[in-house]
Each structure stands twice: as C-alpha cells, then as structure tokens.
Design a protein that fits this description.
Number of helices: 13
Structural class: alpha/beta
CATH class of the largest domain: Alpha Beta
Bound molecules: zinc ion
Strand content: 25-35%
Strand order of the largest sheet: 4-5-3-6-7-8-9-10-15-14
Amino acid sequence: MNPFVAVWDFVRLVWHRRYHSKKRIRSYQLRQIKKLFAHATTHSPFYRQLYQGHVIHSWDDVHNLPTIDKQTMMEHFSDLNTVGLNKDDVISYAVQKERDKDFYGYYQDQYVIGLSSGTSGNKGIYITPKAMTKRLPAVFLARSGLPLSALPYRILFLLRVFSQGFDDINAPLVSLKYLSTMEPLDEIVTAINDNRINILMAPPSLLRQLITKADEITVSLKRIVTYAEVLYPDDKQRFESVFATKVIEIYQASEGQIASACKEGHLHINEDLVYIELFDEEGNRIDTPHVKGHRMVLTNLVNVAQPLIRYEMNDMIVLDEPCPCGSKFRRIEHVLGRHDDLLYFMDQNGQTRYIFPDLFVRWIIVSSEAIREFQVRQRTVGSVEITIDMMGEDERIIPTLTSKIKQELQAFDIIESELEIVLAPIKLPVDKNKFKRFINEIDKQ
Ligand SMILES: [Zn+2]
C-alpha cells in the first residue's frame, strides 16, 4: 500500500545530497542506474530480454534504453520483479485485502503490496519490502520543509488509507496523530483543536471540504502539507488565505517519491531517489525552466525489488530557475496535472486543441468564492460536464461560469463548446481511490 513510507526512509538516509554540485548529483545518478541495470538484468528475466545488446557506460547509453509503461510493467509483472513474486497471487492478495478493507499485514510476511487504480481501470501493483516501511516520521521531518520555529511539531496526518507503519507518536518534539479522511469534518476539527495541532497534512480535496469549517479551528496552524493529489496554484493560494498559513506539498506517485518541498516552500525533484526525464510536445528533451513537459519518464533509483527503469509517467510538470535555498536538485515551478486530465476542443480551423487542467481549475475557482469542489467530465471532444458543489445553493453561478469559460476558450480560438453545468454535492471516494477532479471518458479509438 505504501511506497510512500518506503521512500521516505531513503529520503532521510540520503537527503544531504541535495547540496552536492550538479555534476556530483549526475554522476551519483549514473552510478545508481548502472547498479540498477546490473541488478535487473541479473535477476529479472524481463529486463534481461529487453536489454539484450545494451550496456551502460554513459548517459547516452541510458537514454538509448527502451522505455516501458504501466501496461508493459503489469503484463510482465512476474518476470519483471526480482524477488520472485507471482502476479496472480499478488493481485488476488491485494484485491482480497481491499475487499476486506484490511490495509495491514505484509505479503509473505515480507512485502507491502500497493494497488493503484489506473485511469482506464488498469490496476498497477507496486512492491515495497518490509524493511523499508518502518521509519516514516523521522524521515518525513528530514525533508519536509517544516520550519524549526514550529517546534514542537504537533502533526495531524489525514490519511486516505491506513497502512503499515502508521502509529501515533508522542515524543517530546514531535507528536503525530493519524485520522482517516473519511472521518466527519466535525471530528477532524475537534482533533485539530483538542490536540493543538500546528501542522496539518491532508490531500487537497479534504482541505477543500474543510474550508467550510475553517472558522471553527481555534489553534494557529504553522504549516499545511498536501499530498496524494495535484495541488493547483489557485487552491494553494486559497488554502493559504483561508487557513492563514503557508502550504507546501509532497509530490509522490506509486512509482516513486518524485519531489518534496524545501525550506522556502518550493518543490524540488528528489534527484537521489528518482531520475526524471522530461520532453516537450515535439519530443525534445527539456533541460531548461518554464517549458511545459508533456512527457515524463521516471527511473526509480532505489527500488530494486521491482525495478522501474525509464518508465513512462502520465504527469506533466514545468521546471523552474534554481532555488534560493541552495539545493541543486531541480526545482519544479508547476505541476500541470496528468496527461489524462487535458481537455479537448475544436478550434475555428477544425483543429483539435487541448486545454491544461490547471487553467480550467483557475477559470472555475475564480468565478465564485462559494465553490467548494467541482468535477469535470469529458465524454466527447468539445463538450464538458461540470458538477459544482457550492457552499449555499446559488444557481447564478451557472450563467456566470458558462460565460467565463466560453470567453477564456476564445483566447484559444475555440468558439464552439458545449458546457453542461449542474449543482450537486460531491462526496469524496469512500474507498482507497483518490478523488479525481478531471474524468476523461473520450473514446480514443
Ligand atoms: Zn528550494
């Protein structure tokens, strides 16, 4: 369930590398990839076959390795992992666990099994060895970007799913309490006040629910840390103003711990845990700030049980200038969302145009302060259905939002679009799935 715990452990062990020179970081990464390559080709029949004729001496050799995607990874799961796990056995174990809502225990007493639901229903399975799942809290603090001025830390961690390694902690400088995001909002507010919480960790979707209760929070928060979902800039601003504190994020995926915040509150790629390659729309490698990355390829530098080497991710990010904090790890300006979250329209010339999800988020959020949550569903190019969850029903939002979106789309030469906007309460998922703001059901055949 919890690659999150595992990688944090590694974060703590190696976190000092962020102040190394770029050159040292790159040579460390190349060394790790060489080791990973050797391990994978020795212990994984899948990689032995895939990498026939390949050797790794230089970065060019790395970049010449074929990429794999989630579908390939799952198809070859049994041959790809290096610890002899069988796909069908692992899947039935994980599915049974999920059915029982039992998120504890280790597979074969050795592994935490993570099951991610994919966009088109294709599940991904991720293995984390038990030894790596133990030391979350210390590790979290090591690279959390939390200010020392907030000590002692009294943390409330709102978890979507309970998992191995999560126990309440009561130490002199750190107390940590866990609650499920499924708890009623009143209970969450009570827990914040009664425990005099100063650091709140929660997914953005939960924070949006909590906005309605913000004035019932009587303690002063020193930081909010988001995780598990994209934190859009407009949400970030809104949280900072409503909860009167800085908001930082952890950017993680089942495939790896991609980035975490520095003391300035900026996201940096965890170059010691993952090697991230970015490509623009034309497929050119991106090494400079402010270019939209349409394709991300990830190599997990620390997971040898299930090597993910040059693995195609669905995420889109933009790099930023070097950070004043001094870290040489590449800084992320902006997480644009997932490639699946792009919205498609026809422009005046009959060309298909896409709109980035972060723009859509902005257009919707700025149209009313009273929007608590929304969900956008697209079934055909040129039309979207938007469900809006308002604090207080106000139907006037429908014409306001319709004209706002139409007007914004014109800047992209998109004159015709069908917008269906409905007001309805939106519930967060009650299973372990993430809340998705964008649901793309366009048949791409
Ligand atoms: Zn920084």
